[in-house]
Design goal:
By secondary structure, the protein is of the alpha+beta class. The strands form two sheets. It has a four-stranded mixed beta sheet, sandwiched between helices. Strands 5-6 form a two-stranded antiparallel ribbon. The protein is built from seven helices and six strands. The C terminus is likely disordered. It is 57% helix and 10% strand. It has two domains: 67 residues, Glutaredoxin; 118 residues. α5 runs antiparallel to α6, α5 runs parallel beside α7 and α6 runs antiparallel to α7. The radius of gyration is 22 Å and the shape is elongated.
């Protein structure tokens, strides 16, 4: 059973509708997609089904609901779908997941702290510790937060969440502080441990994103969630 939720970024109630349907998708074995009205697939649905307002619920190509349904109403609409087996994969919606928000917030805080220490370190020779707070703290955390949100949105593929993302989060912070502390105070064991933890965090992120890209839509087709066209396939011209 394919369920599409047609939404718009400017629609306040769309976020609530997505939250309800995401909970339903976690419980029922449905192929759930969030489609934005500005994307080609969203425009096609609007034209085909003559939809005039959002959020709108489309089930197997048929318009089944307008507005925000309660969870009970949504479950009734997909009553024929079997219960979903537990899975660590989750689809990314319009709003940022808690982990994405914390990664981005951490990035901002590390950016401020790292910049202040870099300025102070230029006067007091604090060593490379402040630089790693800035690079691994600000840059890497921002990439982690935006990457786990944007790439699944662009490809329409689910991403590993739950213990996977929180393990990455803990490794990233632990590695950063051990590395900065070890380099700042010339304590090699701490710096080595920090480097290993930071590498493991990066490896987890690469695994999570790699699976998303591996499972993404084949070249030259339209991604199911947001209608992204991959223009890399050459089209043979007719003579």
């Amino acid at each position: 059973m394919k369920v599409q939720l047609l939404v718009s970024e400017w629609c306040p109630s769309c976020h609530q509708a997505e939250k309800v349907w995401q909970e339903v998708a976690d419980e029922r074995d449905i192929d759930f997609e969030v489609v934005d009205v500005v994307q080609p697939e969203g425009k096609a649905l609007i034209q085909k089904l003559r939809i005039r307002t959002v959020p709108a619920v489309i089930i197997d190509g048929q318009l089944k609901g307008i507005g925000v349904q309660s969870k009970a109403e949504a479950l009734k609409m997909v009553a024929g779908a079997p219960p979903r087996k537990a899975t660590p994969f989750h689809r990314v919606g319009m709003g940022l997941a808690l982990s994405s928000r914390l990664f981005i917030l951490s990035s901002a805080l590390y950016g401020l702290l790292g910049t202040l220490l870099l300025i102070k370190g230029s006067l007091l020779s604090l060593g490379p510790g402040p630089f790693h707070l800035f690079s691994l703290g600000f840059i890497a955390m921002m990439i982690y937060g935006l990457g786990e949100h944007m790439l699944p949105r662009f490809t329409g593929q689910p991403i590993l969440m739950g213990p996977w993302v929180w393990s990455q989060f803990a490794l990233a912070h632990g590695g950063l502080w051990f590395l900065a502390f070890g380099l700042g105070f010339s304590w090699k064991p701490a710096a080595l441990l920090g480097g290993i933890l930071a590498w493991l965090s990066l490896a987890l992120f690469a695994l999570r994103i790699g699976i998303v890209l591996w499972r993404s839509t084949p070249t030259g087709t339209v991604a199911p969630m947001v209608g992204v066209v991959y223009p890399f396939k050459k089209v043979k011209e007719k003579s």
